[in-house]
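Notes from hallway chat w/ T.B., transcribed later so I don't forget. T.B. wanted the structure written out for a chain they're using in a teaching module, and asked if we could keep both sequence and structure tokens in one place. Agreed to drop them here.
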Amino acid sequence: MEGVKVVNITKKFGNVVAVNSVSFSVEKGEFFTLLGPSGCGKTTTLRIIAGFERPDTGEVYIGGKLVNEYPPEKRKIGFVFQNYALFPHLTVFENIAFPMRIKRMSEDKIREKVKSLLELLKLEGLENRYPRQLSGGQQQRVALARALARDPEVLLLDEPLSNLDALIRMEVRRELKNLQRKTGITTVYVTHDQDEAFSLSDRIAVMDRGRIIALDTPSNLFENPKSAWLARFLRYKNIVESRVVNGEVEILGRRFRIDEFPSVPRDLKFITIRPDAIHISKQINEGIIKSSEYVVFKGKMRDKLFYGHFTEIYITIDGYEVISMIPTEESEYYKLGEDVYVYVKKRDVKFLVA
């Protein structure tokens, strides 16, 4: 069953097309993320689902019901803003209770519900504090509790972790995922942060210039980017120009039969290989040379960068630069200017259009 369905929504601000014919559906209980760079249309899409913006065209369904004409308070949603939007003059208890007071619930039910949300969000003992007396992570949890106090069918979150420092962000990210699992609430999440999207989501829609350019599970998106733009956005480092010529595909200056690789697009423009999929050695490995699984190159080590547990090795191959990522303890064997052999499994070569 669909928790949220968006059909061909378009939204313009003056001459700027913020959202351009966007469609997707979110299953009930799914954690769905809109991921993209600043200005791509993801927050506008979320605000249209919430009812804060009206689409110029298109339809929004929540729980199977068309809600285009419904104001936000009638849409059975909970919304967490980027800045949390807590009431500074109200205590934690009163902030969480606020949506229930608007609905004129009894005081007994309000106390019971607030108590359960304080326990769920690990806020016990903080109910009498004001927002200014809370850490960023605590404020974020209060905002979540207030959003859940309405018993929404759908939880909408607009970059809720962006104001937290790195360590707290990682901690709250895990708490948020556990919360969504416990409650089973349909969740639509907006972020520009790839790590957040990949660690939290069941599926991800990547947006650029108002359109969805890719929609898939985190693992499929990461393993098989279809375009050079998407690969760059997902922080792939080895993106090299390539082409198909007379039934052969060009990879790092060499040509291979196209039938040696699966699914090479005819409009091929680039190839990419993850740094952890590029293996290096000082000596030729005869077993690998004879294997049909690998392509093998000879290159020269130009640089290396230390990152703690791993080190990046920069190698030039026929004028192309590629990066290999290896354990730091192995990097000590490789010196600048040395020749190295580079081995890549054919399945790890990803073919990209523009």
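Follow-up for T.B.: The longest helix spans residues 166-183. Might be a good example for the class.
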